[in-house]
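=== RUN LOG ===
request id: a7f3
mode: sequence -> structure
chains: 1
length: 274
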Amino acid sequence: MLQQLGWTKGQNFQIEYRWGAGDGDRIRKNATEMAALAPDVVLASGVSVAPMLQATQTVPTVFVLAIDPVGDGLVNSLAHPGGNATGFTLFEFSPSGKWLELLKDAAPSMTRMAVVRDAGTTRGIGQLAAFQTAAASLGIELQPIGVRDIKEIENGIASIASASNGGLIVTASASAGVQRDLIIRLASMHRLPAIYFTRYFVTAGGLMSYGADFVDQFRRAAVYVDRILWGEKSADLPVQHPTKYELVINLKTAKSLGITFPQPILQRANEVIE
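=== RESULT ===
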């Protein structure tokens, strides 16, 4: 995308890469190194955003896949970020009820749903409220499950599976990503229909996902990087919500759970894994 905007690596710009691999210490070290280089702009993703902004309050930073930029203190507001950061959120809270609707359409008998979330942070409180509103209208009882450690995940999922007609929503967090395989395995073992926040859970064996198109987020971030390189201030560029969402369905997993997706859902899916 940057090349389309007139930037050619090695000619009129240079890129320095760092990869944290989910390691908190390594991510903080990378952020410190990046800040010391005093680049014209930094692109930071997911859990690397907060460490980057702790390392520098002056280097313009464009973030992607941020869960709750205001709640996490990354920006002052979405419309007027202030400071040295702006970017793109992982989702907008208001359509979160769509996850419940999609899972209910796939498993109409479902009356109880666990929300797997990181309760140790302020992020996602607005999303949980949106879930609760949608659950009330669909006649679904919600049960939050923490992801602080393996035992908490195992006990929480076992609890929702202890009675019939249960299901899972797995929301975005670093902990959920780290425990992806465990969560998918437990959902399969307890025969719980589950919807996840991103497709890589579904490609690993999860039932379905509904979330932002990650590739589109990086494309849009490139436009912000370009504007900053031409002199605009990150403080003046509003934080934006996703404009493209993707629905991904794993039919092999559905078959193992005895689920038959209605044809309208299959037709709406961006990707169907056979």
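=== NOTES ===
The radius of gyration is 20 Å.
The chain has a mean pLDDT of 90.
=== END ===
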